[in-house]
Amino acid sequence: MTILGISGSLRHDSYNTMLLRNVPLDLELWDGLKEIPPYDEDDDVEPVPSAVARMRAAVAGADAIVFATPEYNASVPGQLKNAVDWLSRPRGEAALLNKPVVVIGASTGAFGAVWAQSELRKVLATAGARVVDAEVGVGHAPERFDADGELLDENLKEQLQEAADTLLAELPARVAIAA
Amino acid sequence: MNTISVTRTALPTGTWNIDPVHSQVGFAVEYMIGTFRGSFSPVEGTLAVTEDGATKLAGSADATSVKVQDENLGMHLLSPEFFDAERAPKIAFSATDIVRDGDHIVVNGELTIKGITQPVTLAGTIADPIEDAYGNDRIGLSLETVVDRTKFGLNWNLPLPNGKPALANDVKLTADLYLVKEA
Chain B interface, mutation test: which of A44, A85, A98, most B Cβ atoms within 10 Å? Predict the structure, then answer.
């Protein structure tokens, strides 16, 4: 089973990347976001840009994805939105189609990127992903991690566990067994 | 499939199969400032009426058969946000009772969309059999109902600039069916 972790932040010491490392799943962190070119339908023809091909392959090959997003101007960072736009095409064969995904987020402000998370859920659902009903918002991020990047707050750890469990429950194999 | 026996006017006996070429299930829903329509086809199904009046009516369509005018919208409708065709590939109806009074017909039954089954009442008209151009006996059945899409887990919406939701919850469903008698 492969579960991809995608951080919407490009910063080396990103709190969102840090948050992904605290998710109680064996995540494969994807680090190709900065290389994704701006979406241009003229470029969305075979062969697509190599960075896009690698991203689409990584997403298509994953059983599920955890997105961690910061919040820029009350919304999703442009580069992350741009990546989702690439992942939403081609329609009917998009890498995100039916893919179980969960959205979490961290921000330096008080609200834990909840508006960006909400917008990212909307965007992912429109792109065809199976967005699970879970939310983890880590506000005041600089105070929530220790020097090694470990999450300090037990309540937030429980929320991460719940989000992980909710995501796992949506994996096709689990659904088939449940049925 | 349930067996029903209540009719005021007899239904034509025999096994009547939906003619998929001419039959269609449609939907209409208020969207922004107008009525948006789409359809599902082909539709398959059977009305079976025995000599003693026992009746069965059931039909289905593939969720992936949804027809709208835009490919992108069509794919969005198949996604988990709408019909979730990957996990709920069939839209199905099965009657629990049918009452015919002249040309009018009322069908109670169970409708399954997105894997969720809800009771519905369909009302419409039924035409007596005619012989078609190919020598087959054929009847026409038109039914409609209104369902709340959110009861089937189709919850998508977006607010308009005026704050009101873009898409209504009530959806009118129509079934325009041609049924051909099995030889």
Answer: A98
